[in-house]
Automatic annotation (TrEMBL):
Source organism: Vitrella brassicaformis (strain CCMP3155)
Keyword set, alphabetical order: Metal-binding, Signal, Zinc, Zinc-finger
GO molecular function: ubiquitin protein ligase activity; zinc ion binding
Domain RING-type: 41-90
Signal peptide: 1-28
Protein name, entry field: RING-type domain-containing protein
Highest taxon above the source species: Eukaryota
Pfam families: TLD (PF07534)
Protein's GO biological process: protein ubiquitination
Length: 314
């Protein structure tokens, strides 16, 4: 399908309201999307996706919002009815009458396929265009610019190589690639070393920073955010003892063999049962009471690649 045909398809399927919204957001500085922005949910303002929590749903009044916001509207109905009160016109729609907006979902899939071709993939990244586009979606803004600041295969595999390349940058996406699995973690802070190089620095991100894990390929039908505890551990340059060199949130460690680890690609990871989103098709643990997902295919593994991307502005 050519871009022109796809655009015609989108126009027929989406209707005037959406196109006006797209045109308005494009003219307001939609960024790297080549003049086309992705329509956003009228409630949460997140970009729509063709599937999952961010797929558009239509109410009886004709207005749409994402699946997650429909659930929220029903949960917060002022009189406790199983109904969604439209955030735009206040009309109520009974829960059983809320429908997926199939036409808009198909249009979204076509639009995202075109839009994906318009983003600037960072120079030197290990991510495919599709993986990179998925990461931008999870970050919540396809106009963000990311920079590949560290790759184990390019910059060296020691902890010192990682620290040298990352420096004092903040807002970091750690990407771990193992076989067909691509996953990792985002931290809004940087890697803060302890004052004593033989010690640890552990910081709690409940207040001043944000931590979440993600999958870009191999675990879910689409790129998916995974909740995590809000803490980061960073070992001093001369630290020896337990654990790895960098721990990001719950049970995700880089550099776990030898202290300081000879190789940052030596990883350890598992996800707690209650944090695994629906639709997971990757490897599960033998003891599902504690742990339910092994994103790298086993608890401990040597990654094929570790990359750190610096998440810049728009
Ligand atoms: Zn929404
Ligand atoms: Zn409405």
């Amino acid at each position: 399908m050519t871009a022109d045909l796809s655009a015609g398809f989108i126009i027929r399927r989406m209707g005037l309201g959406c196109l006006i919204a797209m045109a308005a957001s494009s003219s307001a500085g939609g960024g790297g999307g080549g003049g086309v922005s992705v329509p956003k949910c009228s409630v949460c303002k997140d970009e729509y996706q063709s599937d999952g929590d961010k797929a558009p749903h239509v109410l009886r009044c004709g207005h749409s919002c994402c699946a997650a916001c429909v659930r929220g509207l029903i949960r917060t109905h002022p009189h406790g009815r199983r109904a969604a009160k439209c955030a735009i016109c206040r009309a109520a729609t009974a829960e059983i009458d809320v429908r997926p907006n199939h036409g808009m979902r198909e249009a979204m899939a076509a639009l995202l396929a075109i839009h994906m071709q318009t983003v600037d993939v960072p120079q030197g990244t290990s991510l495919t265009r599709q993986e990179y586009y998925g990461l931008l979606g999870l970050l919540g803004d396809h106009t963000m610019k990311l920079q590949s600041v560290y790759r184990a295969s390019r910059d060296g595999t020691t902890y010192a190589d990682l620290l040298r390349c990352v420096g004092d940058k903040q807002r970091l996406a750690f990407v771990i690639r193992k076989d067909n699995y691509v996953f990792g973690a985002f931290i809004s802070a940087g890697l803060k070393l302890p004052d004593d190089p033989t010690d640890w620095h552990e910081y709690d991100c409940d207040y001043d920073c944000d931590v979440w894990h993600f999958s870009l390929a191999g675990h879910f039908p689409q790129p998916t955010k995974i909740e995590s505890g809000q803490y980061v551990w960073v070992a001093g340059r001369e630290k020896s003892g337990l654990g790895g060199n960098v721990g990001i949130g719950d049970n995700m460690w880089l550099g776990v063999s030898g202290r300081p680890a000879a190789d940052i690609r030596s990883c350890f990871q598992y996800t707690y049962s209650h944090q695994v989103p629906a639709g997971y098709v990757g490897v599960r643990c033998t003891d599902p009471a504690q742990c339910s997902a092994l994103l790298g295919g086993s608890y401990q593994f040597c990654a094929d690649e570790i990359e750190v991307l610096h998440v810049g502005g728009t």
